[in-house]
Amino acid sequence: MSAVLYEQDHTKTSQEDLQPTVEAQCSEINDRNNCGDNNEKPPLYCTQPEDEYPSKPECSMEPLGPWATGQVSCSPKGGITGLRPVADRYSVTRHGPSEWRAHNLNIFLQSNEKVADAQIVANNAKQCVDRVYATANKTQLDTTEHLKSRSHVVYHWKAELEHAIAALAEEIELLESERRRVQRSLSMLTVPESISSEFLQLRSFRLESDLVRDPVEEQLIKEIALCAEIRHSLNKTYNQITTQMTELKTAKTRLENDWSDKLRTYNIDSICVNLSNDSPVVLWKAGAARLPMDQSTPSSYDDFTREGLTFSETARQKSIDLRITLNIMYDKSIKDLRDQATRVDTALAENVKITQECLYQLEKELLSCLRELANTENLIDTLRDSPKGLNNAMKVAQTRLDNRLRRSNVENCRDAAQFALIEEVKSLGEQTSAISAELKRAEECQAELVNMRDTLEHEIMVKQKTLYIDKERGQLLRSSFPSTTALSGF
Questions:
Q1: How far apart (Å, rounded) are the C-alpha atoms in residues 117 and 108?
Q2: What region does 92 belong to: left with phi over 0, alpha with psi -120 to 50, or beta?
Q3: Which of 82, 169, 279, 325 has the fewest C-beta atoms under 10 angstroms from its C-beta?
Q4: pTM above threshold 0.70
Q5: Which three-class secondary structure state does DSSP give residue 82?
Q6: How many C-beta atoms surround the C-beta of residue 421 within 10 A?
């Protein structure tokens, strides 16, 4: 009985929840179909207000039989749909009238929804077409303005390139004349270079100990280095001129190529500005909207042209600076070379004087070495006879120690006499060793003096050879050094 009451309450609640929804759907159908005001009764094929589930009796009844009034049907798709008649031998119906009317209402609602959607789509499509055409026209006008602006930019850069090309052509002619001048100047450095090189070669014949980098050699090396530096500077200047000529021609070629590209671009942009939708030359161009990987950007375009102009101006300015510094280098180089020749002559005279003094001192030192060598030989003879006087004392001390070692038993004692004898042997041995060491040092000193005598004799010969090279040969050779006027090329 409690289960029946719960089912009746649940059925009433479902009917009450369903009633407002059904009335709203019917009202919407009536409004769309212009069925009249809200007081008119909905059509019979739509849901009716009286589509309510009948209340079940309080007592339980069998589900089959002629007295069966039906049961509440609930499906996953339709929810609670109302009364579903019992299928028996008198009927095969599956749906009730209220379920049929709800189905019709659902069909009408779907149809009205699709019709409304179609109208909205049509309206949106018309607005989209109008908007697209307006946007396309505006975009084309904006693009035309961009093309005009771009053509002005290209024309501006083309004019800048024309002025730069004319300036480069003038500078190339001036630099070519300077290159011919440097070629004539390079032949003037042969004489001082040959004099310095020959003198250095003569000084290379000096003997071992005098093969030093003295002031004369340093000044000669500086002179050769200066000649080489001047020649290197002239060669470098010549190479710089050649390189600068190449750079100027490269810059000129680069600007000319850029100018040709800009002229062609300006013509193309002029044609593009004059194109319209009615132009007879417009065609389909498949793939024209692609962005090539090597395509430049406006900033890179400006940077490229500005870089070319900057490169050409830098090359032209470097050429001007090179021509300005060329005359300064001529005057400074000749003056430096003549001053260096004076320094070489001064150092040579000073070196001859010092060598003569050194030769005189070596001769004096040789005499002193010979006297000391004789004294050392006498000392060696004395030291060789000295250890003989200590041998007998060593024999006595060692004999005493040997005799005392023969004492028996406890008498063989380490007494003071034993230690004194041991110290005496030790002292005599040290004294003998000291005399032997002195003898050895004296012999070594004798050998060193002999070597020093040979060295001094050799050095005297070396200094004589050096004086011959520097005084007899070198000063005579330096006397033929060219004058400033000759070095200047006059």
A1: 14
A2: alpha
A3: 279
A4: no
A5: strand
A6: 18
